[in-house]
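> agent: user asked for a holo structure of the chain below bound to fe (ii) ion. Plan: (1) validate sequence alphabet, (2) canonicalize SMILES, (3) run complex prediction with ligand conditioning, (4) return tokens. Step 1... ok. Step 2... ok. Step 3 dispatched.
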Amino acid sequence: MNTPSRALLFTAVALATVSHALPAHAEDGFGYVTAGLVLSIPLGGSLDQIGLGVETSYNSYSARAEVLGVGGFAQAQLLFGGGWRVDVGAQGTVWFGGAELGLALVAPRWRSPQLGLHVAPFASVGYGAAAFRWTPMLTGPMAGTLGYEITVAGKFWWGVEGGRVRDLYNRGCHFDCVIVTGRPLLVDGHLVVASVDRDPAWSGDPDAPSDDALTPPQRSALAEHWTRSMREEHASVAAFARLSLQLMSLGAPPELLRRVHRAAIDEVDHARRCAALASRFAGEPRSPGALPAACAPIAAVDHATLAVDTLREGCVGEAVFAGAAARARDRATDPAVREALTVIARDEAEHAALAWDLVAWCMEAGGDTVREALRAAAGELPTGERQREGIVDGALLGRGWVSEGALASSWKHRRREALRRLGPTRSTVRAMA
Ligand SMILES: [Fe+2]
Ligand SMILES: [Fe+2]
């Protein structure tokens, strides 16, 4: 096998490996699509070989290793001295650095296209990237020569979550691996939310003024953030409705039933506020659509099961989001965002307090079995240590961005509270009941 054939085979294997790894890698992670301009300046060569063109890339990051990305890139450039160059291949990143590996098709003026390798270690921060690009030529009269250049690129980027734009939901992501906006709707242990629709009855005035201070990527990130919050708040309405039926099956007192229904109405209000913000940042109406899972069969529960579910979803889950929402409110500069987060943080804290009262009632009604189940469940609460606070720009924080890291630190705090209140001694539990 000659050198060009080996290079082609090598690149094909690299691309096939990346394309095979991407869907699994991105399933519960996130990715970035970039597009922009690229300028290449030869080192030691003719200035005729300066190239200017366009570049696009996609990088996918696993939720389990947020700093490791894999993906692909493509570049197309015109050369100042005439001719053109196209590069395509795979890339990998670690933190702010990485490397591209692929093929280059180079067609200098007056010459037919010739094949080379593309090898380029790079550094990328925000909207800019710089690389050293080596091009060992494989075919034609330039075979055996080595071109090397500096390339600089300026590009926009767009976040893509779950690999397929938030296709996280309805795919079986278990509660353990995701912290949501308030009480989750779980069916068979899986998180479920509605589809996204365009009903202005939820989203309010579609002609609300847009936020001109934002770049398109920032606007897109905020639209997705508030759309996710909208879907999760909307699902909480069903979560409380189903909770009320389970409570009735166990003969709960009227005050608890009243507060659970009140909480469901709070969640309708939260969903509308989030829909209005999502629509404003998206520049089009966004609303929660149909949610068939709201009618999924409701499991019969005993006091222990209800107490454990409430501990996880309410005492910890809703308290976590109450804390994160309060933190986001304090950072918010946008008046509508601030108002929404003020209401949401207040209500979610009340829902968490309601959850602790539900747990206390379950303990009173169910006795030692419930206490033992709660103590065991508290000890098994996920630690949240997988999440870290990433770099989030001020424009996003000013408009209510809640980072995974903020949720994680709030989670750790609430987990400690649950352990303190429920374990390990029997006297602690009795004192609380
Ligand atoms: Fe809630
Ligand atoms: Fe809520």
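> agent: step 4 complete. Summary for user: The longest strand covers residues 146-161. Confidence is low (pLDDT under 50) at residues 23-29, 161-178, 386-390, 425-433.
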